[in-house]
UniProtKB/TrEMBL annotation:
GO terms for molecular function: 3'-5' DNA helicase activity; ATP binding; DNA binding; four-way junction helicase activity; hydrolase activity. It is found in: Nucleus. It comes from the Eukaryota. GO terms for biological process: cellular response to cold; DNA replication; double-strand break repair via homologous recombination. Residues 233-394 form the Helicase C-terminal domain. Keywords: ATP-binding, DNA-binding, Helicase, Hydrolase, Isomerase, Nucleotide-binding, Nucleus. It comes from Citrus unshiu (Satsuma mandarin). The chain holds residues 375 to 928 of 1156 of the full protein. Residues 33-208 form the Helicase ATP-binding domain. This is DNA 3'-5' helicase. Coiled coil: none annotated.
Amino acid sequence: WSSRDFPWTKKLEANNKKVFGNHSFRPNQREIINATMSGHDVFVLMPTGGGKSLTYQLPALICPGITLVISPLVSLIQDQIMHLLQANIPATFLSGNMEWTEQQEILRELNSDYCKYKLLYVTPEKVAKSDVLLRQLESLNARELLARIVIDEAHCVSQWGHDFRPDYQGLGILKQKFPNTPVLALTATATASVKEDVVQALGLVNCIIFRQSFNRPNLWFSVIPKTKKCLDDIDKFIKENHFDECGIIYCLSRMDCEKVAERLQECGHKAAFYHGSIDPAQRAFVQKQWSKDEINIICATVAFGMGINKPDVRFVIHHSLPKSIEGYHQECGRAGRDGQRSSCVLYYSYSDFIRVKHMISQGVAEQSPFTPGHNRFNVANSGRVLETNTENLLRMVSYCENDVDCRRLLQLVHFGEKFDSAHCKKTCDNCSKIKSFIEKDVTDTAKKLVELVKLTGQQFSSSHILEVFRGSLNQFVKKHRHETLSLHGAGKHLAKSEASRILRHLVIEDFLMEEVKKSDVYGSVSSVLKVNQSKAHNLIIGRQNVVLRFPSAI
Ligand code: ADP
Ligand code: ZN
């Protein structure tokens, strides 16, 4: 597909320079354009900042007819259209919020034989709910004016992904109605299972897949234990490494955003907060200040991000645990789009895990923004989706708890990509620690912990189990007469951190399950450990061992 002998090659190169001001193509751009212009269905996996827009905007410009672009977010669409109009490319969009007369005018133009538009953007709801739009597309198609259908952020189709949107699933209708129109599906995030879902749901035929490495060599990754001093740490980190530079701090709850922003302001930073419940005018104001560098730091929920095109974001800090590795990768991807060195720091605490898990199970975790009313993961309570979300979260936990393997490798494995950690060149915390490790068989301890959870009736928290295990005689232990248990103090010889790491490992590996007891979404949440019988059985009868890697003492 990299050939320069296609009939359109000259025109392509000329317009890339003249209209878009680019001197060359970035990796895969030429190939993708050639494949879609040859009439194939194409699936593109390209990291954020890779240059996906050009792969449909340039063909739209040089092909006869109109390119339909489905994009999840009105603000993203507006941003794109602004850029297109600046480059003198006629583009428009249809949305439900528009005045009826305005919609009518656009439809009239689409019906004209000399229609000026090259690109028509719509949100997925529009496709699902508007017969008017479908009829319009049929009419364009009948007149051979429907050049191409582009599905941006295509991972939203998949329930396995982190941004599932029900309206995306209805997009399969487009291929049914217009089987001869090439579809171009684009995403910056997809695992193998997501990719399959997308291809299937959209009904792509013999689709050609382009994917490139998701490694971002200019991003430096680290995970830092989150303590009570976390905000001091963040302040210090920014002052020492990124003074007066731009960054995003992702927070779990809306309240956290406000608290973190306030604290950073007190420390002298130009910080603001951004989340789903601030009103649109305020939101637009913050975005504008941010793009004009009047604000350096945005403390945001994941509602902030998609469509953020600022090239010089120098750091992305996660004040709490992200919900999945995919989400984390994408959020970090907003740093360093200009290719300059940037930092991605994650503050991790186990109690945040409990908190996020609870939010997910209640369906109150804030998702990426899209249109108002859609920023809640309202299907999160249902079985399969809840299970997937919890599993995604557990993977994120094991990423954080891993203080041995290369962070890049751990992320890329998740995207089905092989990575040689030698190429990390010590740009992650784990690679830069020069230390050696030993493997330890902790099966015996693991068994005892599982037994202890059973003995205490599967109704206590992990911290209580650890207290009993390490022989504490605190009031709570005594109240429940747990000092009389045979396993009281069985883990006396272990360091607290070691015992707790083993216990967490048992949860991550599904030997034990953590159930949230009290429901206070924004406050403290307690949880109890339960035994996962089927998995734990293998451990107890000696059919399975538990091995952990520990840094060797030097
Ligand atoms: P994505 O959608 O993959 O995140 P964009 O399409 O927004 O990425 O492109 C990211 C940035 O790269 C934009 O500022 C765009 O102008 C720029 N860009 C895209 N293609 C090229 C190219 N061939 N040469 C130079 N800059 C490019
Ligand atoms: Zn590394």
